[in-house]
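Hi support team,

I'm filing this because I wasn't sure whether my run with iron/sulfur cluster finished correctly. The job status page said complete, but I'd like someone to confirm that the output block is well-formed before I use it downstream. Pasting the exact inputs I used:
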Amino acid sequence: MNQTPHSNRVHIGIYGNRNAGKSSLFNAILGQDVAVVSPVEGTTTDPVFKAMELIPFGPVVWIDTAGLDDEGILGSLRIEKTKQMLGRTDFALYVLDGSSPDLHAYEEMKQVFKRFNIPHLLVVNKRDLMSADDVEKIQLAYQECVLVSVSDLNDIHHLNDVLQKRLKSLEEEEPLVGDLLPYGSTVVLVVPIDSEAPKGRIILPQVQIIRDCLDHGIKCHVVRDTELAEALEELPKVDLVITDSQAFKEVAKIVPPAIPLTGFSILFSRQKGDFNKLLSGIEALKRLKADAKILISENCTHNHSHEDIGRVKIPNMIRKNIGTTVNIEFAMGHDFPADLSQYDLVIHCGACMVTRKTMLHRIDRADESEVPMTNYGLTLAYFSGILERSIEILKGRDA
Ligand code: SF4
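And here is everything the job wrote out:
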């Protein structure tokens, strides 16, 4: 269970004012003391993450956040961190202290959820401290709310049931290849094993594509670029070749034109983001001048192979093809500037380690700043002269 990557888990954020009982609720749902709980306001300082199997729904990550009404300079920093969690939240529980409900704060947060397109459930906590009159009033005003007392197991089970029904209605991620090819098709994956390849394993995007093939009954052969020609000769029929984007140029020379060819990162641009938007970013890339300012953004800070693409290969291609004076900045991990308006283009990694929601949120931010955005795979395909060929398989799809 713990092997399911975070990117494939639904992220459930718990929001609310200090001392509304967020951490107690978090612990009650998890059935263990993960978050430190105390009656002192503001006990949760940094967001706490916990991966678990929510049976029967499936793997989720819970995010317990600090109070939204925190005070002082440190308090403001905590609120800022809590707000950053919104970009990673697929579904939110808003916890309201039923014994002294701050409805104004809830109404404000409702607008924030709306802006971030996050579905939410209102949980009215401390039911045991409310009068029958107050219970009736709140149920009348917020008909879909769930009233709980964290010490009552029946309440927690009821909340779980309601939550799971809501989660089931969330949009599912698209397959990576499963809807592009019929059952029984044959795919060849090209994974160069060079000095940048991690020792003893293959990287997550490759693992996820293999799993997607298996899920959809697609036969999947994995080869290095050096054995690709031989594999293509041996296999009676190949329906698609998917390559590491760094090897586009070499692989395109080996794969006969009749066999469709694409890249891992291009497939992720559809599943994790908005393919058409990221593709239109290439039009902006074509128009860039030598004084352009570009932001290169990656979701993780630890992937050396990707660091090399983002920090070395793509900048070199830009300088060679657009100009040595292009100004390139980098944003790694969860850092993603709120204001992107100073940039002419954002080039993002394949986003395999994050949820679709996180990536869509970043695309929305670029949209709000009217800055085009594309991704590594599309950029490498364009500079390698095989953009049209690499996206052919996605054309005509509702991408
Ligand atoms: S940098 Fe991006 S594409 Fe690379 S492993 Fe991390 S999330 Fe995936």
